[in-house]
Specification:
The protein is of the alpha+beta class. The chain is built from four helices and eight strands, in the order βαβββαααββββ. The radius of gyration is 17 Å and the shape is globular. The structure holds coenzyme A.
């Protein structure tokens, strides 16, 4: 599913269920040693998806550690992203020679909990959500915006090494094209010296009770 939102050079693998009793991969046990069962399961399954995706790119299996801000640490020459929510886990990877960065996110297709919308929207976004809701009332646009922003952050962080808050980017969403653009409202200087991130583009999809979003940053 999520692969349809990404360029063809990206390898994505997903799972709708966990394998009963699957143990953490050697070298990753400590990352979930103190985690509750639901967290352990989502972690183990998503990491397995990631290894399968890396295998398709020609990388031998190995532990995928987490960095200081919880970002997955990919093998040299690889960019990627991981997501999990109830009933869905996925990982997507690509060669840095094909893509500068990517972020993926999955959410249940439900309205955001009471009060959250106000904390994740900025500037014209409340108006945008009202407009979208009038035109397409079956989509939970507030959750879609939230997911799109999480995808933006997952692509942003590895490229900049900096935090990006929900108030630091303003989204526009195209309901017909299934796409969105995040206009970055803060300094977008990249750690790798690449073109500053002033705008990130992504795609979205609602299917099987899920909202899926994906951002890719071209080279
Ligand atoms: C990091 C964050 C986006 C993850 O969201 P989540 O609700 O836990 O959602 P998911 O389950 O889909 O994603 C979790 C995965 O994101 C990845 N991730 C976590 N931190 C990350 C970071 N700094 N950079 C890139 N990827 C990151 C990890 O792979 C993690 O899974 P893992 O711990 O099993 O490896 C969220 O916790 C967060 O901090 N959001 C605030 C920042 C933000 O979204 N800003 C909006 C900017 S417009």
């Amino acid at each position: 599913m999520i692969e349809t939102l990404l360029p063809p050079t990206v390898v994505a693998v997903h799972a709708f269920a966990d394998l009963p009793g699957e143990a953490p991969y050697p070298g990753e046990q400590d990352l979930v040693a103190k985690a509750v069962e639901t967290r352990r399961r989502e972690f183990v399954t998503a990491r397995r998806c990631a290894r399968e995706a890396l295998d398709k790119l020609g990388h031998p299996p190995g532990p995928i550690r987490s960095g200081p801000r919880r970002e997955p640490v990919w093998p040299a020459g690889v960019v990627g992203s991981i997501t999990h929510c109830a009933g869905y886990r996925a990982a997507a990877v690509a060669r840095v020679t094909d893509l500068a960065g990517l972020g993926i996110d999955a959410e249940p297709h439900d309205a955001l909990p009471e009060g959250v919308r106000e904390t994740v929207t900025v500037a014209g976004e409340p108006d945008l959500l009202r407009r979208l809701g009038r035109g397409h009332p079956t989509v939970h646009w507030d959750r879609l915006l939230f997911s799109a922003k999480e995808s933006v952050y997952k692509a942003w962080y590895p490229l900049t090494g900096r935090w990006l808050g929900f108030e630091d980017a303003e989204l526009s969403i195209d309901p017909a094209a299934g796409s969105f653009t995040a206009r970055v409202l803060v300094d977008g200087t990249r750690a790798d010296g690449g073109r500053p991130l002033t705008e990130l583009r992504g795609r979205w999809l609602v299917a099987r009770g899920l909202i899926l979003t994906a951002v890719s940053v071209p080279r």
